[in-house]
Every structure is written in C-alpha cells, then in structure tokens.
Amino acid sequence: MHSTEQPAGKQDYITYQVCRDHAYDKKADEILKNLPGCTTIIKDEGKGKFSSASNCQVNGTTVISTGVTVFTSKIATHSETDAKYLPPFNGKTEETMVQDQRYIGNCPAGVKPGDTISPDGFIRHHS
Predict the structure, then answer these.
(1) pTM above the 0.85 mark?
(2) Contact 5, 94 (CB under 8 A)
(3) Which residues have a Cβ under 8 Å from the Cβ of 18 and sit 6 or more positions away?
(4) How many whole angstroms separate alpha carbon 1 and alpha carbon 10?
C-alpha cells in the first residue's frame, strides 16, 4: 500500500500479508456498510470493477471517501481511494491510498482469517 497525506505530502509504503477467506471478506463488507456514524455505498460497476463512497462522522470530523477497486486478474486487485477530512484530522486534510493485492496461497498454519503478517514474519492475531 502507498499512502500520501496532505497538506504535508507525507508518504508511507506498507507491505503485509492478510489471511482472508470468503466469510472474512463478507463480514468485513457488512461491518463497513454498518459502521456507526457512516453511510457507505458499494457499487458493482461490472467487468470486475467496484466503486465505493463513504461519509463518516468520527470524533467531530467528517471523513468523505471515494474509491475504485479493479480485479486485474483472477488473483489480483488494484484499488485507489481518496479521503477528505473536515475539519482536518491531526493536521491531515486529505489522503490518497493505492493498494495492490494478490493471492499468494492458503493461510499458514496457526494463522486465521483477519490475521496479518508483517514482512519480518510477525503475526498479529485479530479477533
């Protein structure tokens, strides 16, 4: 993932693995659609393209985000998301995130859907 924050232009590059399955993905979609203080719309644009739009109220800040995800193959996606923060959140007014994901195989032993693995092999278990 590559993110850029404004107005400072701060950039981050993050690489990690996420253990996922269809049930985990469905649950994550439902959580996203039902977050308190948020309105989210996910639209199937056809041909492996999905768009999303969210408006959330978080601790006095309105977060307005839009994004597009495209399945670039049967095992890979490319996503681009833009978010605006009104008023600024910790000095951040906007953020752009670009993510490329690809399937690399089954989850390793002891890793469950939702768990993440950092590049150094550290496993963070999520409930």
Answers:
(1) no
(2) yes
(3) 114, 115, 116, 117
(4) 14
